[in-house]
Amino acid sequence: MPARLSVSVIALACGLASLTAPAFAMQEQGGNATIAPASVIVFNQKLDGSNVKLTYAYAPQKSFAVVYGSDQHGKPDNTVLGSMALTAGDHRDVKIPISGEVKQGSPLWVSLYQAKGDGATFDRANATSYWGKGPLPSTNEFVVQ
Predict the structure, then answer these.
(1) Which domain range does residue 99 map to?
(2) Could you please report the per-residue DSSP string of the chain?
(3) Average pLDDT value over all residues in the chain
(4) CATH code assigned at 87
(5) How many domains does the chain have?
(6) What is the pLDDT of residues 68-122, one digit of tens each?
(7) What superkingdom heads the lineage (predicted)?
(8) In a domain, 17, yes or no
């Protein structure tokens, strides 16, 4: 009988110890927290007057959302059609005014750039895209319907 009691006590102790384990898994708050990367969600859309709508954007720092036209291959060209300043954080349904005429069926691209200087206006010459010098992800493309 005492052997059965010992096994029960050990089993109970192990069970109780496993319940406290998640408390030790808590992460420390502070300087080691990882900053989420910049991201955008944009869908094919009709123009809203002279605006396009960026469904979602996350800017890790003060930034600019910038809309580009496309070349003959459907890839982003260097023509900035519009930009909007963003504060750091989450943004939903951001309307970006477009200058010039955009035709139905035109593929457009959106990118996020870290704001430089006073951050009041977008400066393409000194801008740094969060996606670097490589191509934009295909999810940054949308079509004007």
Answers:
(1) 39-143
(2) -HHHHHHHHHHHHHHHHHHHHHHHTPPPPSTTPPPPPPEEE---B--BTTEEEEEEEEESSSEEEEEEEE-TTSSEEEEEEEEEEE-SEEEEEEEEE--S---TT-EEEEEEEE--TT-SS--GGG-EETTTTSPPPGGGEEEB-
(3) 84
(4) 2.60.40
(5) 1
(6) 999 999 999 989 999 999 999 999 999 999 998 898 999 999 999 998 877 788 9
(7) Bacteria
(8) no
